[in-house]
């Protein structure tokens, strides 16, 4: 795995944590309740995973099946 | 855990390189690539800082024989898994245990709530289903630990694939968007529900794509 | 090589600092601050971890470990989830109505459906000068005001939770609001039980009635706020906060649960029973009785007639309360009371100042502090099985004192003519300079008798307000 993908993977947790914090701040300031905004967390995680895959693909790991073919 | 074929089942502990089974070098209970496999290790135990907030101070466990004393017992994990959260705790997955408890509580609350009305039986059925899911997940995780396969905090019985179309992230983003739009009142479930046949079509297309890709490299599947 | 995060120790320091602040600045309300600002803790934590990880990455110290990557650990996530639950709980407890009329736990917990409001207007009925009005509202608040009129007028809002507006309209029709005349009774019914799912609807009402009316409120859930009524009031509910002001007739309240019962300026008798949290009675001209289990603070001020309080743990009887009695946090404080006073309790600390006529106290566990200020003294019989008894006497007090301790000490700072006699672990203090009998008995604990000092000076006596002086608001 290349470095950037690794970095993003490691950052996934803390960034999610910040997001949760922001959602609760919005809730406590009376704008939109957390019970309504929680899906943003799932969307965010999905986007981050996409990002990880995109970054990992940049380094173009050997296509999986050719390894098997080389057996 | 289970991936498509057994092609890349582990990563080198040091450099993170994806390793095919024949490239994996086992040492100290985890997996290394040929470059980084340690020749010898003076001591197994660098003293792990004892705080729950530190980045995981786990010591590599010696490869455990399922029959050795102290090894995680899948059977016990299953039974403990019937109690919400305890199965995951048995496998040292604390956050997951807490999440299990919360989901269990939520399920019962929703099943009990009058707001659900006619759908109470659905949520009622989800409760025992969830209990069994927790039990089986604990069982499988314990089995993996006993066999020395490294296990992530949020390991799950759902396989994760790194090749092909990004099903996982796409599903997450999609579901998240649907729920969000509903919650904000922009696009209600009832309106989206009319499109349910699209999932059948989507599934069909996806399977077609799978088959066509598989047919491009037929030797692998025949050589099982 | 694995590095440990710096955030852990930082969090410990922050928590320590918060509680340190609390110890030194009494006004610093930790729970309020924490309840509102805890999400910033998460944000700060996440940011610190981000900075840390970026740093490690720059130094090349990031590395994967088998399946785990050096992001957040499982233990950290467990703590995060725990903080979220705890923080939301604190926030909800401080800022929001935990239980509203729909019985949901958190506001905006609309998993399915949304709320539709229907206005109730223009409902009225002719009533005469002193009708008997029954309010039958299963869920919702009712606010009733007595005015100079001869008709009953109701306005309000009905809120129905449903998936679509059509469903809501259907429910609205099924739970049609009605005012019914039956003999000399006027019944206001919201018919919420007829909703297909009775928890989904609640109605908040505002009712103006003739001043001379008698009101009866019945419901499962919802507050009653009643003002300026000459007739009697009866409230019976499973869960209600009741606030009455300026009531001429008898007041009867029976609640299975309540957060607050408050009766101010009542000319008649007041009877409160059931279970609740806070109770407040002020300016009651009639006989007041409170019985049941109350877990909050109770305040009784200016009650002109005998007052009686009964609970599982304690019982209290006072002839008149000119000042006030407060029961809170396991202690009973009373000021300016007229006896006979009788207090019995399993466990309470008692502190009475400025009382006259006979006083009888019997507690199993608790401290007793008596500060009579008026002379001549009254007959006192105080007993605690376990606790400290303190008698603070004004100068010139005359009494026939018999104080005895079974296991403890007696301190006599008053001086003559009382004398301490010790007998092993027991002790007695006796003496008399004329005056009524004052008996203090402590099984396990100490007794202290002393003179008034300036520090003991009670607040200057307030001129007693006649409870018949009803203030119109």
How are the SSEs placed, and which strands pair?
The complex is a heterotrimer of chains A (71), B (224) and C (473).
Chain A: H1 3-28, H2 34-37, H3 39-58, H4 64-69
Helix pairs in contact in A: 1-3
Chain B: E1 10-11, E2 18-19, E3 25-27, E4 30-32, H1 74-81, H2 86-90, H3 94-112, H4 120-146, H5 167-183, H6 189-193, H7 197-216, H8 218-222
Antiparallel strand pairs in B: 1-2, 3-4
Chain C: H1 7-24, H2 30-58, H3 74-95, E1 114-126, E2 132-136, E3 142-147, E4 151-162, H4 165-174, E5 178-182, E6 185-189, E7 201-210, E8 214-221, E9 224-229, E10 233-239, E11 242-247, E12 251-255, E13 260-266, E14 270-276, E15 278-284, E16 288-294, E17 298-303, E18 307-310, E19 314-328, E20 331-347, E21 349-356, E22 359-365, E23 368-371, E24 380-386, E25 389-393, E26 400-407, E27 410-412, E28 419-423, E29 426-432, E30 437-444, E31 447-451
Parallel strand pairs in C: 2-6, 2-8, 3-7, 3-9, 8-10, 9-11, 10-12, 11-13, 12-14, 13-15, 14-16, 15-17, 16-18, 20-21, 20-22, 21-23, 22-24, 23-25, 24-30, 25-31, 26-30, 27-31
Antiparallel strand pairs in C: 1-4, 4-7, 5-6, 17-19, 18-19, 19-20, 26-29, 28-29
Helix pairs in contact in C: 1-2, 2-3
Biggest β-sheet of chain B, characterized? Answer: 2 strands, antiparallel
> Which descriptor suits the 3D outline of chain B?
flat
From the alpha carbons, calculate the radius of gyration of chain B and give it in angstroms.
22 Å
Strand order of the largest sheet of chain B: 1-2
- In the predicted model, the low-confidence regions of chain B spanning at least 5 consecutive residues are 1-6, 40-52, 54-66
Strand content of chain B: under 5%
Structural class of chain C: alpha/beta
How many H/I helical runs of chain C?
4
Give the distance, in angstroms, between the N- and C-terminal Cα atoms of chain B: 18 Å
Largest sheet of chain C: 31 strands, mixed
Q: Into which percent range does the helicity of residues of chain B fall?
A: 40-55%
Question: Any key phrases for this structure?
Answer:
heterotrimer, B: 224 residues, mainly alpha, two-stranded antiparallel sheet, two-stranded antiparallel ribbon, 4 strands, flat, disordered N terminus, C: 473 residues, alpha/beta, disordered C terminus
